[in-house]
Every structure is written in C-alpha cells, then in structure tokens.
Amino acid sequence: MNQPPLVRVRVASETVAVLLALVVVGAASPDAAAYAKQVHHLKATATGKSSSSSRSAYSPYPMMITPVRIGLAVRTSRAHFALAYPGFVFVNGIPIFDVKPMMVYTIAQGRITEMATGRSVALPIDQRSYVSAPPDYRVWTNNRWYRGCLELISFGNTVSVINLLDLEEYLLGVVPSEMPSSWAMEALKAQAVAARSYAWAHVGANSKWRNDGFDLVPDVRDQAYNGLAREAASTFMAVHQTRGLILKDAGRVKAGFYRAWVGDEYENLNIRKTAVPTPVLEKLTGVKNIVGVTVKKWDDGGNAHDIQVMGAKKSREVYGVELAHRLGLVTAGILDVREEGPNWVFTYRGPGNGARGLSQHGANMLATKGWRFDQILQQYYQDPDGKLRLDYLDTYKAAFRRPMLQPASETTPAKTADE
Question: Is the model's pLDDT at 352 over the cut of 90?
Fold first, then answer.
C-alpha cells in the first residue's frame, strides 16, 4: 500500500540518520554481477524453485560450534536493522521475506517494515524468527554492526532482539571492548581466556537471563561487547591463538571474573604482604637469632617448596608450604622475605579466582615484563594447590585443528605443567 506523501517525508528523514551508520560498509557491497547472482539465488530459494542443496546454503544462522545469544534489546517497542548484502527473514528455516541490502527495516507492533516503501511482514509470536544475509552473516542493529545473525522474539507489541553467533566470533568484539587493543599481546591473550571462561560459565541453564531467552547482555552486567567496529588485528590474534581455551576447576569451567583495577599496586598484581614478628618466626622454625630467610626452591606451581632460615649459630631448611599455612598466608607462592625492623615481611602471591579475579592493568604490567599469558592467568586464577588448569571446551576437543575464523598456522598456546 502506498503511503501518504507526508508519511513518506517523515520516514525518509528518519532514515537519513540511520543510513549514515551504514556508509561504513558501503565499500564492501558486492559488484553488480555478484549482486544480481546472489539476488537470483535468494529469490529462487524464497519461492522454492532452487535445488535442496542450494536452499541449504542459505541457513538462517552461520555454522557455530559453541553458539551464544546476546540480548541487544529486551522487550523493546521498536528496533531497526539492516544488512550489507541481500538476505531474508526466516521462520522455521524458511525465508518468508526478502531483505534488501543497505536498506533500513523497522520492527514494531509485531511486524517488520521496510522503511523506504512500507512493505512489511508479520512476525509469529509462538516461535523465533531470524534475520541474516547468508553467507555474509553480518547485521546492523542497536546502532552497531555485529557478526552473526539476529534472532527475534515477538511478544506482539514488543520484541526482543538477540545476536546469535559463535562464541569465538563474539569474543572478537568483547576483548577489544574490555581491554585496549594496543596493550601487550600476552595480556590480550589472558583477557581472551578470561572472557571466554566467563561467557561459557554463564550460558544456557547457568545464565541469569535464561528466562528472557538469551545468555548474556553486551554491557558491564556481563561483558562489554561493541561488535565489529571495535575489532582489531591484535585482539583477533589473541582470540584466535587461544581459541577454545578456558579455565577449569574440579572439571568445571571456572568463571573468569576480572576488573580494571583491584586496589593498590601490589594488590593490582595480586601480590600480598604479611609482617611476621621475629619471635613468632623463630618459634615456628626452631632457629634463634634469624639473620636471613631465603626461598631455595619453588615447585612447578610457583609455591615456595624449600625455605632456608639462617641463624647466627645454626641454619635450617623448612617446607615452605607448611610454613605458609602455619603463618596464615593465603598461598604458599612466597616471592620474597625481607627483614623490616622487628618483623620479617613475606611477599607472596594472592589467592586465585577470588571475587576480584584478574586485574587487567596488572595483567598488562606483567605482560610488559615478559610474562606469558598462562603465567599471568596462574597469578590470578590458580587453584588451592597453586596450579593453573587450562582446558579446551568439550566442543573444541574434536574440532580444534579445523580453522574457525580464517586459515592460520599459529602454534599451539603454551601449556601449563599439569596439562
């Protein structure tokens, strides 16, 4: 149905602002021949005149090993979307409405409407609908471009707009949104593992948003996720070189909590200090007139295994893990012991996987000092035995060697001693 002139003017003015956001992908639009060919295939698919193999090439959503759903808008009265390439609205895997490239569509009142023409289609309220442009799988909504497709849940007068994509592609937008892409590569890799662990620990039945039909939200309530515009080459490599790796504890994924800062400089590096009065240390070690305390050997988990206590008349070696326990230190990761007045000050690694988790600034400082990403993660997420447990997602154990994002030949990430 044609719209009255006044309505067309209003829609056109609203569209101008939205289209400005689409200019950035204009250069990526297909040439005329490629565009005509894809439109032909899509029309044949929509009318059922193409072969079954051709129709299967236009899945509503991309291939995913570990799918995640990001709630971009929840029960909103109106939303917009656009595609860079020709695509469809799908219901039950069947295309019901063609979507033209670089045109803006409105979702409102249970319908999808092409803003420029008024052409529309009703959305079912008893099942999810999908919007995508196979095989490109990029979509604009919520004023940003995203990988994957849109999943729509219509409630009649409101709609929830969900970004459905693979976990690894989601992380491409998370890591640079949570940590500057200019930071040290090993810090970015540590961030990638922490973010992947957090996400996978909060999907499906473990999600606080499960009753809303998605897993995560794109802000600080979960993790910042700003889509394609924030992606960078450095964070792409950080995600790709750690793909599938998560933190584990007792066979379960460990939620990789993290913050920008966690207190003062020492706490930011997850380092603690405890002052022990000399008489207390003398009683525990059996050495009088202590003049020196030296860590002689660390074990594979970074715990002080052998500590040499030097006295004026005799010396003695003690088991560092037991000494740390009796001194009330939260870990046996003793880094240094110094005499300060009447006390001996123990500097040691803080506990792993606490509520504060990884310090992002601390991770970058350690990375600039030459620490590997697994060493950084151990500093913040080690188990009570002092070891870090990295493992692959179950879905990746069989598929890890298959390129996920683009052909690459990176080496396998460094493994910890207990892997």
Answer: no
